[in-house]
Every structure is written in structure tokens, then in C-alpha cells.
Amino acid sequence: MEIHEKNNLKLGYLLTILGAVAWGFSGICGEYLMQSSHMNTGLIVNIRLIIAGLLLTILSIVKYKKESLLIFKNKKDLLNLIIFGVFGILFCQYSYLSAIKYTNAPTGTVLQFLSSGIIVVYVCLVEKRFPKIIEILAIFLSLLGVFGLATHFSLSELVISPLGLFWGTMAAISVVVYTLIPISLMLKYPKLSVIGFGMLVGGIVFTIYLQPWKFVVPTDSVSLWALFGMVFIGTVFSFSSFLIGVSIVGPVIGGLIAGLEAVASLIFSIILLGQTFTIQDLVSIALVMSSIVILSFKKD
């Protein structure tokens, strides 16, 4: 029995790590598509949401059968699903890729992790209390890290574009929205179902707005492989793998392992895109990631 539990735990760690690494890889794919293939950001988001939403929904129906469709029988939950799909998933995907477009994948990913500090502030406001010392430390480290990424710790210069900083901040806010909106849905329905249908809803709404048939999809082999990486590896595989892994290892360990996304993104960007980073960049990334580690060890 103990051997089975240990093997199951190892599988949980492996799946969670693979999910986080796959997320990091998807950011690199997105950066290549936008900066090298000059593919429209909205078009990438649209394709990603429609295809990944369909596949995750199919996976959910295969695994959970009729339970996956129960959400459509409750009008209130269905409305929350639509809000989650548009203001959670769609907003999150678009702002995150826009942050990458105007900076790079590792920087965009790290800016997105500011969401941890924002959630702490939100919780303190809701609970009408001052932040605890550990929470203040985490917020300070994350803000110091973002300051370092933006200025290289010099008040006289801004080393990333204002648009990059803006969309990075929006990405962090969008993660907060993405995290808080579906809590009640996740407790009642299969997670794959909520995420799959949420992506599909966001994709359909964005299709109506964007009219993607007006844009050109690059057809060279590298761009197509990057698009494949975004949709299948960085979305379908990553979400499925991470959710299953977290269900085994628990949310605290899962939250810690999620930080590997930024590390993986940094490594992939150096190996695959040949990017270089200064010591200030690396220190800044480490500061933001350390804030996540600190918050993950909170007992409450």
C-alpha cells in the first residue's frame, strides 16, 4: 500500500512539473509567433481558445460523462461560466500574450505572477484586516522584483516598454479575475469542464469581435509547430497534466511547482530563441518568484 501511495505521489509531482514546464514552453511559442512570424496577437488567442476549448471539453465529457454538462441546467452557474470565459480566460490570455509581445516570454510570465500579491491585498480588504508580516514581505519582494525588471534598479531609466509594463500589470490583474470568478463552479463541476467550456465561450465571443478570417495565418513549418506548441502542449496538455497533478500533491505544493513556469520560460528563451538576460533581470525574476514561495508556505 505504501509503495502504491509513493508511486502515486511521484506521478503527481511529475504531472504537475510537466504542466508548469509546458506553460513556460507555450509562452516561448507565443513570443516566436508574434515577434518573428508577426502573427496577430488576437488571432493567436482566438485559435488557442477555440481548439483547446473543444479538446478539453471533449476530454471532460469522455472522463466525466453527463456530469460535464450539468452546468447548462443552472442559469446562474451558466452566467458565471460566460463571465469566466470572457473576463477571466479571454482577458487573461490576451493580456498575457500582449505582455510577452512588448517584452519577452520570461518577463511577461514573471509580471503575471504579481497576481499573488494582488490576491493578498484583495483578501485583506475582504477580511477587513492589515496584511500579516509574511504577506507584507511577499508583496514587497514582488514589487521590488517588478521594479528591477522595469528599471534595472535605476530610477533614471525604464528598460522595458511602457506598453509591456501595462500589459504585464493587466496580465496579473486578469489572473486574479481568472482565479476568483470560477471558485464556486470548480467546487460543483469537473475542473476540465469549467475550463474547457470557459475557453470555448471566450473563443466564440472573441471570434464574433475579431473576425479572424480577416487575418493571415503563417504557413511556414516553424510557425505551424509554434502554433501546435501553443494549443496542444501549452494549453491542452499543460492544463490537463497540472490539474491532475495538483489533485494528487495538493494546492500548496502545486502553487510552488507552478513557479517553474517562469524558470522554464527563461531556459527555453535562452536555448530556443537565443535571448540573453542581465544579472539585474535574473535577480528581479528571483525576487518575484521568492514572493510566491513565501506565500505558498502560509498555513492558512
Explain the overall architecture.
This protein has helices spanning 2-35, 41-64, 75-102, 105-112, 115-127, 133-151, 162-180, 183-188, 191-210, 221-249, 251-258, 260-273, 279-296. It is mainly alpha-helical. It has one domain (15-131, 160-256).
What are the segments in which pLDDT stays under 50 over at least 5 consecutive residues?
A: none
Tally of DSSP β-strands: 0
Residue share in β-strands: under 5%
Helix content: over 70%
Q: What do the pLDDT scores average to?
A: 86
Tally of structural domains = 1
State the distance separating the first and last CA atoms: 30 Å
Number of helices: 13
Which class best fits the helix and strand makeup?
mainly alpha
Global morphology = globular
What is the radius of gyration computed over CA atoms, rounded to a whole number of angstroms? 19 Å
Please trace the helix and strand order, writing H or E for each element.
HHHHHHHHHHHHH
Largest sheet: none
Transmembrane segments: 12-33, 45-62, 78-97, 109-126, 133-153, 159-180, 192-210, 222-245, 252-273, 279-297
Membrane topology: Multi-pass membrane protein
Family: Belongs to the EamA transporter family.
Domain EamA: 11-149, 163-296
